[in-house]
Amino acid sequence: MSMRRYFIILTLALAFSGSESALAEASRPNFLIIYTDDHGYGDVSTYGAADVRTPNIDSLAADGMLFTTMRANCTVCSPSRAALLTGRNQDRVGVPGVIRTQPENSWGYFDPSIPTLPDELKKGGYHTAIVGKWHLGLESPNTPNERGFDHFHGFLGDMMDSYMSHLRHGNNYMRLNGDVIEPEGHATELFTQWASDYIKSRSGKKDEPFLLYLAYNAPHFPIEPPADWLAKVKARAPEMEEKRATNVAFVEHLDHHIGEVLKSLDESGLRESTLVIFTADNGGSLPHGQNNDPWRDGKQSHYDGGLRVPFMARWPGHISPGSKSDYAGQVFDLFPTFLELAGATATDPAALDAVSLVSVLKGETDTSSRDLYFVRREGGKAYGGKNYEALIRGEWKLMQNDPYSPLELYNLKNDPGETTNLATKAPKVFNELSAALTARIQRGGSTPWQKP
């Protein structure tokens, strides 16, 4: 081979290698998680709801993949968020219950030693941001900027006393990074604007992909839609009960603003390069007119109305439009999914309880199975500061809804409405799941859940 031909081949090989590397780099998506609060499975119209209209949320399913069997990690806020951000069961990161503004009624402390999703993605060159509700700590070391987020624009606390005042028990927890702010307007609209501003700021920065965790407070009570949105619902459905109409208007107002966020991706040229996930932290609150049909019960309950949540994924060119999956996973499976797509590795992969959804997103049949574990700790007379748990293995579900009631057993395949308790009729299954649940409780008990 002549020296000239050798150098030509070498140059082409290097060029090809460089372009291949660039392609791999370019293929790493941005990540946008749209995470709503107390959003029932039956309050998204693509799942069959007849009285609520959510065209923008529905569009994510039409343009991507609709999941029918995803469950939140907990029946309430903080534990679900802790699991999502760590890929571990919530009791293993110190958050079996809700972190509240009053220490005497707070049932978790987010373990500062556990790497978070933004921590792991930052190691891979991602810029990380949270807009909206945090609910995993009010002070150092558990503020968003200390737990992996480069940018925080939102609310440190749990629920708001009002979507217009943004206070909780009279305290202002609105922040721009570490600064106290006093924005004016409806919280849903504020979070939408801040998220859109962030997305626009990332336009043209292909060398630094981003994670945006957009955590709305809505539709968590107090149910406060703007008056014009409620008027529209009442005009089209004057027979609708007031409580339900108010919630429908609240959800539709939220859906409209999710549409504004999606529009900002389009306008910034980021639609094709962004994996968008829509989901929620737990099922809807039945006393507030929310809908979890066709599942039994709602928020705080281990029946599926409290656990099944809307879940859809859109990534143009990578996820087939209009596809559907009945894979039975949990929302925290996003943690290893994002790391895999980002080409990143968890600090301690063996410590993760979550599993990647990448093969599911590709449309491949996933036949793997694992136990799904749920736990919540709560105070008051009904709970006494104790845990109650649930465990799903295949078609079987073992559960209780308070620490003092006997365990119940359901066959979800034959009885999806969870109407017939088989605890005394399937003793072998009951004993096997009870042993598995005991082991989970022991494992979770090794992590403190109160501030040291």
Structural key phrases:
4-stranded antiparallel sheet; 10-stranded mixed sheet; 452 residues; Alkaline Phosphatase, subunit A; alpha/beta; Arylsulfatase, C-terminal domain; 2 domains
Layout of helices and strands:
Blueprint: H1 3-26, E1 30-36, H2 55-62, E2 65-67, H3 77-86, H4 117-123, E3 127-133, E4 151-155, E5 167-168, E6 171-172, E7 174-176, E8 179-180, H5 187-201, E9 210-215, H6 227-236, H7 242-267, E10 274-280, H8 304-307, E11 311-314, E12 323-325, H9 334-342, H10 358-361, E13 372-378, E14 386-393, E15 396-399, E16 408-411, H11 427-444
Helix pairs in contact: 5-7, 6-7
Condensed summary:
With 452 residues, the chain is an alpha/beta fold.
Q: What is the CATH first-level class name of the largest domain?
A: Alpha Beta
Helical amount: 25-40%
What is the CATH topology of the largest domain? Alkaline Phosphatase, subunit A
Specify the CATH architecture of the largest domain.
3-Layer(aba) Sandwich
Describe this structure in words.
The radius of gyration is 22 Å and the shape is globular. 30% of the residues lie in helices and 16% in strands. The protein has a 10-stranded mixed sheet, sandwiched between helices. Strands 13-14-15-16 form a 4-stranded antiparallel sheet, with helices on one face. A two-stranded antiparallel sheet has the order 5-6. Strand 15 and strand 16 (408-411) form a beta hairpin. Helix 5 (187-201) packs parallel to helix 7 and helix 6 packs across helix 7 (242-267). It has 2 domains: 28-361, Alkaline Phosphatase, subunit A (3-Layer(aba) Sandwich), CATH 3.40.720; 372-444, Arylsulfatase, C-terminal domain (2-Layer Sandwich). The protein is built from 11 helices and 16 strands. With 452 residues, the chain is α/β, with parallel strands linked by helices.
